């Protein structure tokens, strides 16, 4: 069930300003998936509701030509494509993370979120920084980890990378 909270309560719970929350809500700015995850948790709604404003359905068919990047920010170094508006009971959020080329920006701040995460490298290669350790990953490599540990995807080269990321909410 959705919780009734003020914008200020949600902002405080997520550790962001009320003005930033308002800009995110009105589509005036993009935000890291970690921040969106915190917002969805504070509202007690699935992350897909924050990423995708479409009504939830039992079957979601999404041809690649209809899929758009939902969250993009040059400074963040990522764009996200929601692959399905999952059922609120499944606890699974399949997403494509497009990691921008190495020289396009500086990524230094790692992310955390409440869900576990499974990643599968579809294209390119990345360094997965996880809980203080650096791991080289290339196409067809996979990893499963707790999202509450600091992590970050860094592209290895200027080709960037495409990562299938599945967020798994074990609290349902």
Automatic annotation (TrEMBL):
<keyword id="KW-0238">DNA-binding</keyword>
<dbReference type="Pfam" id="PF01381">
    <property type="entry name" value="HTH_3"/>
</dbReference>
<dbReference type="InterPro" id="IPR010982">
    <property type="entry name" value="Lambda_DNA-bd_dom_sf"/>
</dbReference>
<dbReference type="InterPro" id="IPR013096">
    <property type="entry name" value="Cupin_2"/>
</dbReference>
<protein>
    <submittedName>
        <fullName>Transcriptional regulator, XRE family with cupin sensor</fullName>
    </submittedName>
</protein>
<dbReference type="GO" id="GO:0003700">
    <property type="term" value="F:DNA-binding transcription factor activity"/>
</dbReference>
<dbReference type="InterPro" id="IPR014710">
    <property type="entry name" value="RmlC-like_jellyroll"/>
</dbReference>
<dbReference type="InterPro" id="IPR011051">
    <property type="entry name" value="RmlC_Cupin_sf"/>
</dbReference>
<dbReference type="InterPro" id="IPR001387">
    <property type="entry name" value="Cro/C1-type_HTH"/>
</dbReference>
<dbReference type="Pfam" id="PF07883">
    <property type="entry name" value="Cupin_2"/>
</dbReference>
<feature type="domain" description="HTH cro/C1-type">
    <location>
        <begin position="2"/>
        <end position="50"/>
    </location>
</feature>
<dbReference type="InterPro" id="IPR050807">
    <property type="entry name" value="TransReg_Diox_bact_type"/>
</dbReference>
<dbReference type="GO" id="GO:0003677">
    <property type="term" value="F:DNA binding"/>
</dbReference>
<dbReference type="GO" id="GO:0005829">
    <property type="term" value="C:cytosol"/>
</dbReference>
């Amino acid at each position: 069930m959705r919780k009734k909270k003020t914008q200020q309560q949600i902002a405080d719970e997520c550790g962001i300003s009320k003005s930033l929350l308002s800009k995110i809500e009105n589509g005036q700015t993009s935000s890291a998936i970690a921040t969106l995850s915190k917002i969805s948790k504070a509202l007690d709604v699935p992350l897909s509701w924050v990423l995708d404003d479409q009504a939830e359905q039992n079957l979601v068919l999404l041809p690649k030509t209809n899929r758009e990047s939902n969250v993009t920010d040059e400074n963040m170094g990522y764009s996200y494509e929601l692959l399905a508006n999952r059922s609120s009971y499944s606890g699974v959020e399949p997403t494509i993370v497009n990691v921008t080329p190495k020289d396009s920006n500086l990524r230094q701040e790692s992310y955390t979120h409440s869900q576990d995460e499974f990643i599968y490298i579809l294209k390119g290669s990345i360094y997965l920084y996880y809980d203080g350790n650096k791991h080289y990953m290339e196409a067809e490599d996979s990893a499963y980890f707790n999202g509450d540990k600091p992590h970050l995807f860094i592209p290895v080269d200027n080709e960037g990378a495409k990562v299938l990321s599945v967020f798994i909410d074990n609290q349902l």
